[in-house]
């Protein structure tokens, strides 16, 4: 397999110093090598519009802040660290599950939008996607906490990529449940923690609610929900659901991540497996095992 971390630093630097009328075209050129990231979207996808929708850096404001932030990412060697982390993670995963399919992976690292209050606030300056086989999308604002977690973030998204690669777990939009995504987030965090420890491996979004039993019970009540348009509230929380036109359900940001970690940790404890060994674990088995353990402990 081949890992290709696109040189988006050079491209973004050019965009942020170009005349305004040239920026959209240059951005489109930068995004084109990763256009298949959006292959499941209906109709023709406007890459520039998708960039804005995903909280990518703006083309018409905040130039100085973005230029400074871009250099901070570059000075932190974000691109090199992503590539090295992915290579190490693939080696660890193959040692645990030598028969899996590991696709070629193209990685798109972008700078976030400092004027996006949701991205910079509830989103903690980070957005990422590893659900589309062969592509990873990593959107950072260089908060110190995010720079410290560059490797863990990349490895988290790789775990999703490998879980849903051919021969792995099938994500069927017609039948997939909240439970599958919650478990997948827990597995991805567990894999990142296996490599980088708890301090860096947890997705920051879920950490405040790891020990909140009320949040746990609420998310568990929705694990059987289907319809991907409903997932944002249960996994990412109400603020994200509202941002993208969904219906809130009474959950804080990162609730599904926190609960996914608890479910997966319980499952790993009972089975004695590592996160890498549990890459293709059935989400229903993970949930049932964890809930039986919790009931037994009451």
Q: Which terms summarize this structure?
A:
alpha/beta; 2 domains; 14 helices; 7% strand; 298 residues; 4 strands; 53% helix
Quick synopsis:
This protein is α/β, with parallel strands linked by helices and 298 residues long. The chain is built from 14 helices and four strands. InterPro entries: DUF2268 (IPR018728).
Number of separate structural domains = 2
Helix content: 40-55%
Strand content: 5-15%
**What is the overall number of helices?**
14
**N- to C-terminal distance:** 47 Å
Radius of gyration: 19 Å
Mean pLDDT: 96
Give the SSE string. Answer: EHHHHHEHEEHHHHHHHH
Quaternary structure annotation: single chain
Helix/strand/pairing class, anyone?
A: alpha/beta
Number of strands: 4
Strand order of the largest sheet: 1-2-4-3
Low-confidence stretches: none
The profile of the biggest β sheet is: 4 strands, mixed
* Gross morphology: globular
Describe the structure.
It is a single chain. With 298 residues, the protein is an alpha/beta fold. The protein has two domains: 1-168, no CATH class; 169-298, no CATH class. 53% of the residues lie in helices and 7% in strands. The chain is built from 14 helices and four strands. It has helices at 8-17, 20-31, 47-53, 63-75, 78-96, 117-120, 144-148, 150-163, 178-201, 213-221, 231-235, 238-243, 255-271, 283-296; strands at 3-5, 105-111, 126-129, 135-140. Strands 1-2-4-3 form a four-stranded mixed beta sheet. A hairpin with a 5-residue loop joins strand 3 (126-129) and strand 4 (135-140). The longest helix is centred in the middle third of the chain and has 24 residues, at 178-201. It is globular and about 65 Å long. The termini are far apart. The model has no long low-confidence stretch (mean pLDDT 96).
């Amino acid at each position: 397999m081949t890992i290709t971390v696109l040189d988006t630093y050079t491209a973004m630097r050019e965009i942020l110093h170009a005349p305004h009328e040239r920026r959209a075209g240059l951005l489109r050129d930068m995004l084109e090598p990763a256009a298949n990231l959006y292959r499941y979207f209906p109709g023709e996808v406007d890459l520039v519009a998708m960039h804005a929708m995903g909280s990518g850096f703006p083309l018409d404001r905040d130039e100085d802040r973005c230029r400074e932030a871009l250099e901070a990412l570059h000075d932190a060697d974000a691109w090199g660290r992503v590539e090295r982390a992915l290579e190490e993670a693939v080696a660890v995963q193959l040692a645990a599950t030598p028969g899996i399919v590991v696709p070629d992976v193209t990685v798109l690292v972008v700078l976030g939008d400092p004027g996006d209050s949701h991205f910079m606030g509830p989103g903690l300056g980070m957005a990422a996607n590893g659900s589309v086989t062969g592509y990873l999308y990593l959107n950072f604002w260089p908060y110190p906490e995010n720079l410290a977690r560059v490797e863990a973030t990349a490895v988290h998204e790789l775990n999703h990529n490998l879980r849903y690669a051919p021969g792995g777990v099938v994500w069927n939009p017609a039948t997939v449940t909240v439970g599958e995504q919650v478990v997948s987030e827990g597995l991805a965090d567990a894999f990142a923690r296996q490599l980088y420890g708890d301090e860096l491996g947890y997705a920051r979004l879920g950490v405040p609610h790891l020990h909140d039993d009320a949040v746990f019970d609420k998310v568990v009540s929705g694990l059987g929900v289907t319809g991907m348009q409903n997932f944002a509230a249960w996994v990412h929380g109400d603020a994200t659901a509202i941002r993208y036109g969904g219906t809130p359900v009474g959950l804080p940001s990162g609730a599904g991540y926190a609960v996914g970690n608890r479910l997966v940790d319980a499952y790993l404890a009972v089975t004695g497996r590592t996160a890498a060994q549990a890459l293709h674990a059935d989400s229903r088995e993970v949930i049932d095992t964890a809930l039986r353990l919790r009931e037994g402990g009451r």
